[in-house]
């Protein structure tokens, strides 16, 4: 119903090549004043043949009085404006002379002044003053529309005057009417956008006045002077411009012999028309047209004032709701909770019935909203079709996104959508939903038959009888204040997110600084403690060696160990504890170095490295049955020293935690993807409870008793740090008494370069 027929949209309505016969037309070159064109009726109107006018300077034609000629040549109108020069008398009567600019030409129009219509703007002033005061006192838009129609009909003497407003799709609705009984009422009837195609609407916007004095007129051709061809003459601003034959037929089908329209332009946009009709041919004198134009501009200002006033009141009301929501979001740890935990304000902010917040693939819904699958489909569609828009709205989701009804909870469940985009990177949206509002509208004739093609020519519909339609799949439209409020909420959310990000960045900087200080401290302490612990072990062993012979002799004399035997046990405990502390210090030193030293990436043969680690761990295999299953591991780009620490830790742990098995089974494998290489070390040892997997890679975290399995609790923390330094990750899987699998990923070269490793 809103699609303009292509043939109508392509009609050359700005360059018709003809004029209406209630006057004649000339064009002159703006520089030389040579007469370039003349309407074919110029001779019959003036007594001077049109052919004698063409090709001559205007002042040489003797056509116009000297006063008018001087005014025309001395004062060129501003672009898009017409200038009135005065009245000229010819053999057929008096004519009003006006001119305007069209390209390189001046268009001079001489419009016949009907002696039956006498008067001037001066005489109309009292009526105009009363009309303006009346319009300014109208309390509602409906009263303004009705009053305007009444005043225009009184001024023009036409049988019917309508105020015609366009909706968002440019369908028109009659919102005000004043008439007698000669023409039928069209009040509250709708007319499809195809009745006034896009190019015609633009012409109405540019030239606010249009008069068709007699729908049965014969168009008068415009003649060009001889010589090089002239471009088509643009008559967009001409009073006498001939109109489309389709529109003339449209008027006849409506039963109107003449029409006069004034455009209502609000903030540069064609808001609607004041359209007057008469059952017989009727003209409207220039001064009355000017008065109606002035009234239309007053009406446009009143409409704008009404709109701004109502919008301002609505914005104030919504700002109170928004303030409560902002306070709620500020109190919560995350802004999403501030919205979904206050559904009444969240929905009333834009008069919605349901809403959803989608953030980082998490979906939160309130009220009458689609399920998560429906919301996810909507977000995917929004990102693909409207990803470049911060705000998107529609009152007919079924029309904008066919097939969405099923995903959105069934037919009519969600008809209107308002979406604000929080982040393009993570597909984060706030969505509001409205249900279908079924309504019945009356059309001026069946809009499905707005135009027909017959005998290769376009024809308008024949009937304008009231035709009812039930409108489905549409919600109440989203208003400008509602859209503005949604935009303000979006800005507030982004501000909250940015503030949180700044706080997190500050905290991250502080943590990094603290970590650097802690690493420096642990490096210094672990490095400085290595020598004292070695000294303790060394001197304890010397003391043991010195006491051993004395203890052996005493034991031989007494036949049993005495107090000296206890001394040796004390020394053994000191040595064992010092060894354990030394290992802990070595682990701390390795952990600190992993975060401090720079990576030295190179091509590493992992098969050879694992073989080397197995060789170094041979002492731990004595007296054990251990079966290794090592697959092909290949090559990776990594720091060889750090990678050796990873495999040595994984293999050492596998050997340690399979100690109770008759046959220990340890496998090493590698899996390659486009992004990374993942290494896996699997054993059949004691395993662990997955409920505690989060503790595995923490510093000094242990899942088993020291008495059962010795260790420092630093090795796996070191593995995770090495993995992160390479841009990869480390993780584990296991089950109690069913073994464990440890994983370590290293990005491939391209990925590693992207993470800046």
UniProtKB/TrEMBL annotation:
Q: Which InterPro entries does the record cross-reference, listed alphabetically?
A: BphY/WalK/GraS-like, GAF, GAF-like_dom_sf, HATPase_C_sf, HATPase_dom, His_kinase_dom, HisK_dim/P_dom, HisK_dim/P_sf
Domain (Phytochrome chromophore attachment site) spans 140-297
Annotated CDD domains: HisKA (cd00082)
Catalysed reaction(s)? Answer: ATP + protein L-histidine = ADP + protein N-phospho-L-histidine
Source taxon at top rank:
Bacteria
Q: Which residues cross the membrane?
A: none
Q: The Histidine kinase domain covers which part of the protein?
A: 524-750
Gene3D superfamilies (alphabetical): 1.10.287.130, 3.30.450.270, 3.30.450.40, Histidine kinase-like ATPase, C-terminal domain, PAS domain
What are the protein's GO molecular function terms? phosphorelay response regulator activity; phosphorelay sensor kinase activity; photoreceptor activity; protein kinase activator activity
- Localization per Swiss-Prot or TrEMBL: Cell inner membrane
GO BP annotations of the record are: detection of visible light; osmosensory signaling via phosphorelay pathway; regulation of DNA-templated transcription
EC number annotated for this UniProt entry? 2.7.13.3
Q: Coiled-coil segments, which residues?
A: none
**Keywords of the record:** Chromophore, Kinase, Phosphoprotein, Photoreceptor protein, Receptor, Sensory transduction, Transferase
Q: How does it sit in the membrane?
A: Multi-pass membrane protein
Record's GO cellular component terms: plasma membrane
Q: What class of enzyme is it?
A: transferase
Q: What family is reported?
A: In the N-terminal section; belongs to the phytochrome family.
Its recorded name reads histidine kinase
Native species of this protein?
A: Achromobacter aloeverae
């Amino acid at each position: 119903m809103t699609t303009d027929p292509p043939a109508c949209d392509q009609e050359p309505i700005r360059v018709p090549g003809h004029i209406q016969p209630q006057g004649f037309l000339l064009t002159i070159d703006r520089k030389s004043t040579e007469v370039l064109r003349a309407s074919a009726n110029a001779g019959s109107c003036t007594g001077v043949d049109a052919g004698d006018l063409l090709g001559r300077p205007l002042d040489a034609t003797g056509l116009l009085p000297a006063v008018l000629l001087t005014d025309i040549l001395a004062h060129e109108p501003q672009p898009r404006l017409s200038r009135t020069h005065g009245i000229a008398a010819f053999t057929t009567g008096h004519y009003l002379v006006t001119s305007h600019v069209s390209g390189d030409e001046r268009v001079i129009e001489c419009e016949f002044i009907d002696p039956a219509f006498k008067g001037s703007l001066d005489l109309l002033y009292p009526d105009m003053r009363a009309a303006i005061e009346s319009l300014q006192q109208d309390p509602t838009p409906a009263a303004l529309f009705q009053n305007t129609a009444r005043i225009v009909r009184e001024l023009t003497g036409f049988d019917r005057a309508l105020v015609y407003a366009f909706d968002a799709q440019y369908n028109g609705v009659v919102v005000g009417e004043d008439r007698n009984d000669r023409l039928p009422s069209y009040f509250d009837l709708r007319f499809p956008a195809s009745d006034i195609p896009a190019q015609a609407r633009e012409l109405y916007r540019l030239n606010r006045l249009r008069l068709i004095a007699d729908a049965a007129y014969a168009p008068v051709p415009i003649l060009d002077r001889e010589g090089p061809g002239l471009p088509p003459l643009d008559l967009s601003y001409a009073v006498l411009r001939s109109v489309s034959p389709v529109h003339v037929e449209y008027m006849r089908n409506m039963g109107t012999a003449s029409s006069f329209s004034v455009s209502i332009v609000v903030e540069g946009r064609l808001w609607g028309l004041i359209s007057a009709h008469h059952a017989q041919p009727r003209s409207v004198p220039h001064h009355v047209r000017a008065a109606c134009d002035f009234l239309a501009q007053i009406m446009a200002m009143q409409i704008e004032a009404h709109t701004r006033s109502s919008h301002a009141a609505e914005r104030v009301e919504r700002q109170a709701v928004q303030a409560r929501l902002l306070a709620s979001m500020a109190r919560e740890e995350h802004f999403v909770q501030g919205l979904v935990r206050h559904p009444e304000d969240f929905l009333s902010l834009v008069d919605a019935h349901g809403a959803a917040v989608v953030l980082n693939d998490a979906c939160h819904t309130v009220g009458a909203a689609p399920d998560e699958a429906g919301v996810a489909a909507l977000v995917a569609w929004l990102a693909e079709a409207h990803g470049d828009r911060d705000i998107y709205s529609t009152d007919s989701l079924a029309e904008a996104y066919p097939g969405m009804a099923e995903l959105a909870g069934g037919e009519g469940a969600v008809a209107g959508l308002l979406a604000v985009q929080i982040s393009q990177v993570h597909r984060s949206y706030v969505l509001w939903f409205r249900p279908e509002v079924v309504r019945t509208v009356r059309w001026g004739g069946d809009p499905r038959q707005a135009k027909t093609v017959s005998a290769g020519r376009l024809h308008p519909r024949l009937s304008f009888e009231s035709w009812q339609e039930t409108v489905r799949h549409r919600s109440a439209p989203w208003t400008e204040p509602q859209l503005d409020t949604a935009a303000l909420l979006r800005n507030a959310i982004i501000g909250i997110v940015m503030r949180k990000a700044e706080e997190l960045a500050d905290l991250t900087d502080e943590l990094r600084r603290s970590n650097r200080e802690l690493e420096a401290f642990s490096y210094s302490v672990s490095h400085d403690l290595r020598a004292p612990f070695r000294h303790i072990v060394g001197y304890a062993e010397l003391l043991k060696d010195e006491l051993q012979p004395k203890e052996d002799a005493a034991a031989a004399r007494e036949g049993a160990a005495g107090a000296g035997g206890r001394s040796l046990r004390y020394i053994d405990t000191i040595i064992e504890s010092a060894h354990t502390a030394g290992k802990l210090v070595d682990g701390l030193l390795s952990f600190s170095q992993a975060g401090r030293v720079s990576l030295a990436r190179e091509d590493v043969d992992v098969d050879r490295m694992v073989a080397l680690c197995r060789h170094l761990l041979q002492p731990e295999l004595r007296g054990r049955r251990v079966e290794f299953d090592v697959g092909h591991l290949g090559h990776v780009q990594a720091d060889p020293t750090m990678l050796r620490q990873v495999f040595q830790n994984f293999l050492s742990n596998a050997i340690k935690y399979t100690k109770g098995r008759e046959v220990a089974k340890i496998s090493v494998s590698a899996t390659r993807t486009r992004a990374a290489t993942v290494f896996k070390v699997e054993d059949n040892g004691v395993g662990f409870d997955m409920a505690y997997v989060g503790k595995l890679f923490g510093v000094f975290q242990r899942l088993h008793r020291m008495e059962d399995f010795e260790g420092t609790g630093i090795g796996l923390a070191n593995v995770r740090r090495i993995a992160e330094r390479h841009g990869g990750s480390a993780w584990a899987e296991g089950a109690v008494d069913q073994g464990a699998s440890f994983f370590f990923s290293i990005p491939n070269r391209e990925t590693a370069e992207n993470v800046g490793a």
